[in-house]
Structures are given as C-alpha cells and as structure tokens.
Design a protein that fits this description.
One of its GO terms (molecular function) is succinate-semialdehyde dehydrogenase (NAD+) activity. This protein has 14 helices and 22 strands. The protein is α/β, with parallel strands linked by helices. The chain is globular and about 65 Å long. Bound molecules: nicotinamide-adenine-dinucleotide (NAD).
Length: 502
C-alpha cells in the first residue's frame, strides 16, 4: 500500500501499491481506471493479489461490479467520437510516447510482472520489451490504414472501401503475459481509432494498472482506455457485451472461456477475435542440427517456465536422433535454476497458483502410470511457493492425457517416431492449431512439412514465433483472427464500402 513514495502516485489515486526496493517507477494505482480517474468502484470489495513465489499477499485491487463495467462503457462511449476523429498522426504520436515510456520503465515493469506472475526476471524483461514493441509497431501502422478503390466489373460505378474504427472494444487478457497481451490489444485498438475497456486477469492486475498509468502519463485522452478488474468476470463481461454501444470483443485465454464468450458475443452479434489455447508439437527430424534443436527446444519449452500458449507441449523426435536429443535436453533442463521470479539468479520461476501445480502433477502422474519414463524431475517439491521443477518424460505413450491437454508448465513430453508421415499425422491429431515447431537440416523438406501442419504459425528451425510484425493466431479451436502485423489493426476496423458514380 502507499507509503513514503506515495507522492509519486497520480494526484487522484486512492489506493496504491509501491513495488518494494524497485527504482524508477511510481506508486501503482490499484483502483479502477474509468474516464481518466482512478476510482474504488461501487462494491467496496477488493481482490487480493498473491506472489506465487511465496504464496503471500502482495496487495489488493478494486473489485468492479457490473455497474462499474457499464460506467467504463459510458467513458469509452464519451471519448469514442473524438478519438476516432483524431488525426492518425496524432494517434501515432501518443502510441509512440507509450512505447518510449514503457522502455523507460522496463526494469520496474519486469519487477512487477515477476512479483505477481512468478516468472523469472529475464522472462519478465523479455515480455516488457515485446509488449512495448506493439506500441511502436501500431504507431507506425496507425498512419497506414489505407482503403481500396476499384472500378466495378460492370463499369457502372466505382467501389470505394474505407476502413473505419469498429467501435468500443472489450479486451480480456490472461495472466501468463500480463503486459504483452494487454498492449497487443490496446495498441491496435487505439491505432484504429477505437476506445476500449480492458479486463485483466484477476491473478495479475498490477501490471495492467501500471501500464494504464503509463498510458495516462503518455497522453492517452480520458476514456480512451479504461480498466476494470473483477473477481467475477462472467456477469461483468456479459453486461458489457450486451450493451449495444460495444462493437468488438478481443479475448486471449483458454478455449473453454473463449467458447463461453463467443456465445455471449452472439447476443448482439459482436465482432470477436479469439486467441485461445494451444497444444504445440515440436518435430525433430534425424537430419536436424542437434545443438540448434536443443536450443530451440529450450526456448519453445522453457520461456515463461512453459506457461505460454505457444509452448512446445509434445516433442516428436525421429529414432536416429532420439537418444542424443533426450540426453541433451535432460542435461540443459536439469541445469536450470528454479526459484523466486524476482531472484536475479532464477532461470525457471514459479507457476501461477496451486491449481496449476495440481494440474501438472496429475498430467505427469497419468503419463507415468501409462508407461512414460521420468528422465528428470517429475515430482513437486516442498515449500510455500508454487514451484514445479523442470522435468523430462521420455517414451510418452500417445494415450497419455498430456498429449491432448496443455501442460502449461516446465515438463517436456517426448515421443519417438520412425516415419515423418506418422509425425505429421500425430502433430495434427488435436483440436488445437496455434503453433508448431519443425527442426530439419533440409529446408525444402521443412517447408513442405510446414505447409502440411494444421497450425496458424510454424517455427521452422526456430524456437520462437512471436513478433509484433507477424500475424499471430491459431486455427481450429485455437482461435479466430490475428494479432500483430497489419492483420491485427484490421481486427479493430470495419470495411465501409461506398458505391459511387462520378
Ligand atoms: P482463462 O480463460 O481462465 O482466463 C482468461 C481471461 O478470461 C481472464 O481475464 C479471466 O478473468 C477471464 N474470464 C474467465 N472466465 C470468464 C467469463 N466467464 N467471462 C469473461 N471472462 C472470463 O485463461 P488463463 O488461465 O488466464 O490463461 C491461460 C490460457 O490462455 C491458456 O489456455 C493459454 O493457452 C491461453 N493463452 C492464449 C494465447 C494466445 O495468444 N492464443 C496467449 C496467452 C494465453
């Protein structure tokens, strides 16, 4: 709560949180951001924010009611016309200042992410830089919302197409990338000329609130970005989606919640973008460069300690390279230091909560009971924080539950294969389709395999796909639409066609 550094807080802030021992930040307002004011909301209740590395309460944030959510819609509606009419260059300038300000606060923001999410500081810092890039990218895109002009085939008229802001957007984000998932939505919404309401995950509200204050200070006008945290997201989000003024839903989270929200969005036929769960396969062919494949596997599996929608969930490794791959992965994963996110020596941080540990434990136990061999880890340790050790399971049978479900933790499940056709079939045998990885020394073959993988994104001889300049998103039950690139901007626009004769 506010203390000696309270003077660093915005003047209207009520409750605030000061990050212990952190330099260069400010007291984070922990209320709701509505119409440029920090307000405690109408419930009188607060939500505890935990440190997953210790299990202790860090602070609390305001708990929004449905009425608070609708006040945020009022604020977004009041700001909508003037923000849509703000010249693209002026919108770009605001976004550029947001980018600069996030960079200036990078270490401090990383500290907040590590505190409330548990991830290791290098992962947190990487996230902040990635998150900031969305402001830079969309500052550049804001001035390139070009339309189309064509002569109608019959020759009678011109077809003029203009991309207009879609309208007020509800943005809902998960806890695993609390900064990047927020900026990946806020930046294109603002670039397109939309106002928005962000509903961050209840586990990690502080990062979003810190970003909210950074945006205010960077000159985002009142009501353009509003933020509401709640312990009961269903009713609040449904009420917002049933308000006729709201025209866009952009959601990142589990497929299960995505399906609920699609049903809610159908009530008013709200345009929806969905970034949902993944079950990424990681294929390693005999001709792959072993060291490169291991390096890529470590990034694909261990970035964020495995708590990433793009995380490699199933490794399919060809028989010739299989023993060496398993041995080296065990060596590399076993060398990682497990510890509190904010400890500067930590390489693998804590999981988000107790439920996550229980889910990983049950998936590992199930695989072992069905015949998987534990090569590393595989057992949760003692202690107050929510830790699971880096683990490697070899010879995982295809009927193990973790072949079908997201592990969302530091567990590598490895399956051998003989024939590449089998590997492709196994890789595609899932209802998910977010990202896939392929390692091979033959680029032509790699491209052919990539084209046959039923995924929105394929990393070929790389362990990372995320890039603000590339269209991020999934097929099948991993989602609808794309974030990043020019595609992400178009998600916040509506094509207006004008038939004109002149
Ligand atoms: P989650 O679905 O439980 O929660 C996501 C958000 O939805 C949170 O803000 C939560 O409060 C909110 N929510 C929950 N129930 C709701 C309801 N009934 N109505 C409205 N909102 C509701 O997911 P999570 O556990 O926070 O995140 C992990 C999941 O997110 C994983 O499945 C992961 O793969 C996915 N994810 C996907 C991407 C992507 O880009 N595809 C990125 C990150 C995470």
């Amino acid at each position: 709560m506010s203390s000696s550094t309270a003077s660093l807080a915005p003047t209207d802030a009520g409750h605030t949180y000061v990050v212990p021992d952190a330099k260069g930040g400010f007291a984070i307002p922990t209320d709701l951001l509505i119409a440029d004011k920090w307000t405690a909301g109408t419930s009188g209740k607060r939500i505890d924010v935990l440190n997953p590395s210790t299990g202790e309460v860090l602070t609390s944030v305001a708990d929004a009611t449905v009425a608070d959510g609708l006040s945020a819609v009022d604020a977004a509606a009041a700001a909508a016309a003037s923000w849509a009419a703000t010249p693209p260059r002026a919108r770009a300038n605001v976004l550029q200042r947001c980018f600069q300000s996030m960079l200036e606060h990078a270490d401090w923001l990383a500290q907040i992410i590590s505190l409330e999410n548990g991830k290791a500081l290098p992962d947190a810092r990487g996230e902040v830089l990635y998150a900031a890039e969305f402001f830079r990218w969309y500052a550049e895109e804001a001035v390139r919302i070009n339309g189309d002009l064509a002569i109608a085939p019959a020759g009678g008229n011109r077809i003029v197409v203009q991309y207009q802001p879609i309208g007020i957007a509800l943005l809902i984000t998960p806890w695993n990338f609390p900064a990047a998932m927020a900026t990946r939505k806020i930046a294109p919404a603002l670039a397109a000329g939309c106002t928005c309401i962000l509903k961050p995950a209840e586990e990690t509200p502080l990062t979003a609130l810190a970003v909210g204050e950074i945006l205010r200070r960077a000159g985002v006008p009142a009501g353009v970005v509003n933020m509401v945290n709640t312990s009961d997201p269903g009713p609040l989000c449904s009420a917002i989606l049933r308000d006729m003024r709201v025209r866009k839903l952009s959601f990142t989270g589990s497929t299960e919640v995505g399906k609920i929200l699609l049903r809610e969005a159908s009530y008013n036929v709200i345009n929806s973008s969905m970034e949902l769960g993944g079950n990424a396969p990681f294929l390693v062919l005999d001709d792959a460069d072993l060291d490169a494949a291991i390096e890529g596997a470590m990034i694909a599996k261990m970035r964020n300690a495995g708590e990433a929608c793009t995380a490699a969930n199933r490794f399919y490794v060809q028989e010739g390279i299989y023993p060496a791959f398993v041995e080296k992965l065990v060596e590399k994963m076993g060398a990682l230091k497990l510890g509190a996110g904010t400890d500067t020596t930590t390489q693998c941080g804590a999981m988000i909560n107790r439920a996550a540990i229980e889910k990983i434990t049950s998936l590992v136990d199930d695989a072992v009971a069905k015949g998987a061999k534990v090569k590393l880890g595989g057992k949760v340790g003692e202690g107050a924080g929510f830790f699971y050790p880096p683990s490697v399971l070899a010879d995982v049978p295809l009927n193990a539950n973790l072949i079908r479900e997201e592990i969302f933790g530091p567990v590598a499940a490895i399956v051998p294969f003989k024939d590449v056709e089998d590997a492709i079939r196994m890789a595609n045998d899932t209802e998910y389709g977010l990202s896939a990885y392929v390692y091979t020394g033959d680029l032509k073959r790699g491209m052919q395999i990539s084209e046959r993988l039923e995924y929105g994104m394929v990393a070929l001889n790389r362990g990372l796909v995320s890039d603000p300049a590339a269209p991020f998103g999934g097929v099948k039950q991993s989602g609808l639409g794309r974030e990043g690139a020019h595609h992400g901007l178009l998600e916040f626009t509506e094509a207006k066609y004008i038939a004109v004769s002149w």
